[in-house]
Design a protein that fits this description.
The protein is mainly α. Helix content is 55%, strand content 7%. The chain has 13 helices and five strands. A three-stranded parallel β-sheet has the order 1-2-3, with helices on both faces. Bound molecules: adenosine monophosphate (AMP) and tryptophan (TRP). Adenosine monophosphate binds at residues 7-8, 16-17, 19-21, 142-143, 145-146, 180-182, 191-193.
Length: 326
């Protein structure tokens, strides 16, 4: 089985990224041949600083290895190191409609936050479809916010296959049962993300323990006093329960029983401590890995070589079937 996922090199990665992304990568890598791509070409679709991109690409590589991706077993690489991605995006642009792209909620949300809305931001899902389809991917582990992009990828694959002949595997998205949508601790109606929302409610994977503790202590809850998962009336507590489930490995019903009758204060403190404990070993490995830039570049070089080999046959088939003289 082929597994592929991508993660943007930008900003600091959050508890949401851990839950919907990193955590799933480490478990799915056991199930087959896995590719994890630092999507630096996607990072330039909103305004970016060149120096910050270099820094965040290397930091993200360190974080991927720190969360247990094994470079022997999985292919971890930077998108810009494998030319096939940019080429595939151009070719697939011809089987993607303007109307489909215009409907993407990711585009609508992001474009509202930008003064300069780039053509790249609009075409973002086409580049993502190419990432996935180049590798004959069967499953795509992602958070719930990527569902629409994965569905579009399936449509693009099917359209290409029916126009030009069977070329692509039609991939399937895999979303965690709990923690596919971690919310901002201060604004539980909003996804936890570094690009928008109250920063006090965004837990970063590299936050110091005291910072994490404080963010959970001040997390908004709801009126009422029961620790119960019921997202409509209790968005804050439901979010904290999902976070606790991710951090402790216990299911939400088990946690509800455990905190039956306990106050919100005790519960929030425990969630904070569980997250601190979860991130402590990751942070330690991250610091070690990040300090050795030569080694990170070497590992990315190896990954790029494997990714080039794996993607080349698909790209050749695409050019062929579309009628390009080779
Ligand atoms: P990004 O940093 O946007 O490239 O996201 C990397 C991965 O993290 C993707 O699979 C996203 O779906 C996932 N992700 C981002 N934010 C959240 C969140 N708040 N909850 C769950 N998953 C998330
Ligand atoms: N769009 C994804 C995000 O913002 C990142 C991404 C790019 C991706 N290419 C991908 C995810 C391919 C899965 C597969 O999180």
């Amino acid at each position: 089985m082929r597994i592929f996922s991508g993660i943007r090199a930008s900003g600091d990665k959050t508890l949401g990224n851990y839950s919907g992304g990193f955590r799933q990568y480490a478990t799915t890598q056991e199930q087959g041949e896995a590719f994890f791509c630092i999507v630096d070409l996607h990072s330039i679709t909103t305004t970016h600083e060149p120096e910050a991109l270099r820094e965040s690409t290397l930091s993200l590589a360190a974080m991927l290895f720190a969360t247990n991706l094994d470079p022997e077993r999985s292919t971890v690489f930077a998108q810009s190191h494998v030319r096939a991605h940019a080429e595939a995006a151009w070719l697939l642009g011809s089987v993607t409609s303007f109307g489909e792209l215009r409907r993407m909620t990711h585009f609508k949300d992001r474009s509202e936050q930008q003064e300069f809305v780039s053509a790249g931001l609009f075409a973002y899902p086409v580049l993502m479809a190419g990432d996935i389809l180049l590798y004959g991917t069967d499953i795509v582990p992602v958070g719930d916010d990527q569902r629409q992009h994965v569905e579009l990828t399936r449509d693009i694959a099917e359209r290409f296959n029916s126009r030009y002949g069977e070329t692509f595997v039609v991939p399937r998205g895999v979303y965690p049962e709990e923690g596919a949508r971690i919310k901002n601790l201060q604004e539980p109606e909003r996804l936890m993300s570094t690009s928008a929302g109250n920063p006090q409610g965004v837990v970063r994977m590299i936050d110091e323990p005291d910072v994490i503790r404080k963010k959970f202590k001040t997390a908004v809850t709801d009126s009422g006093r029961e620790v119960r998962h019921d997202p409509e009336p209790k968005p804050g507590i439901s979010n904290l329960l999902e976070i606790m489930s991710v951090a402790s490995g216990k299911s939400v019903p088990v946690l509800e029983a455990r905190y039956d009758g306990a106050g919100y204060g005790e519960f929030k403190t425990d969630v904070g401590e569980a997250v601190i404990e979860l991130f402590a070993p990751i942070q330690e490995r991250y610091r070690e890995l990040r300090a050795d830039e030569g080694e990170l570049r070497r590992l990315l070089g190896l990954g790029a070589e494997k990714a080039r080999q794996a993607s080349a046959p698909t790209l050749t088939a695409m050019y062929d079937r579309m009628g390009f003289v080779r």
